[in-house]
Design a protein that fits this description.
about 190 residues, mainly alpha, de novo design (two linked rop proteins), 8 helices, about 80% helix
């Protein structure tokens, strides 16, 4: 075997190893995205399980908040239906977050409810779950950013396009949540 033949074989083997390494890296990133979304989904499920208790507790005190309570119950039903894509779940989660905030603001009108030990425990649990959801969102966004960088940078982008890997959206806070809450406006609706 000639030196040129050996160089070609070693070069070809090296190229194949590099392609395999890039392919495996993209697969690893895709799996990390699925894993991160699964972690966030678990936290969202905890929230969905708490919502009926929250709604039932508030309902006892807040008859005129009926439409807000019905809306959040309806959103929860959609979220737990199992028929949503990841992007649809994220969008629905934004709506549920807004609804839960609305309930917590509405509770301010009910001193007896605020003092109820059941409600205090429920509120504490909701706060813990919201904190866990926030942490899961940060993890999800970090993994999504790494994935997007992986499939959009050269030469990985070539392999990613042959694998039909698409850019994924990071979790974004909706504009309404960026604004300061005006309690007056919530009660005038």
């Amino acid at each position: 075997m000639t030196t040129t033949g050996i160089i070609l074989i070693v070069g070809g083997a090296l190229i194949i190893l590099i392609l395999i390494s890039m392919y495996n890296g993209l697969i690893r990133r895709r799996n990390e995205v699925d894993n991160a979304f699964g972690g966030m989904d678990v936290q969202l499920k905890k929230r969905y399980d708490l919502i009926p208790n929250l709604v039932a507790t508030v309902k006892q005190y807040a008859n005129h908040e009926k439409s807000l309570l019905e809306n959040i119950t309806e959103l929860r039903a959609k979220a737990t239906s199992g028929k949503l894509s990841n992007d649809e779940k994220v969008a629905l989660d934004n709506q549920i977050s807004q609804g839960v905030k609305g309930i917590m603001v509405a509770v301010e009108n009910y001193p007896d409810l605020k003092a109820s030990e059941n409600f205090i425990n429920l509120q504490r649990t909701m706060n813990e779950v919201e904190s866990q959801i926030s942490a899961a969102r940060r993890t999800y966004n970090a993994v999504i950013t790494d994935y997007n960088n992986g499939i959009q940078t050269f030469p990985h982008s070539i392999i990613a396009s042959t694998m039909h890997l698409q850019r994924k959206e990071v979790f974004m806070i909706i504009e309404a949540e960026r604004q300061n809450v005006t309690v007056n406006n919530l009660f005038n609706n």
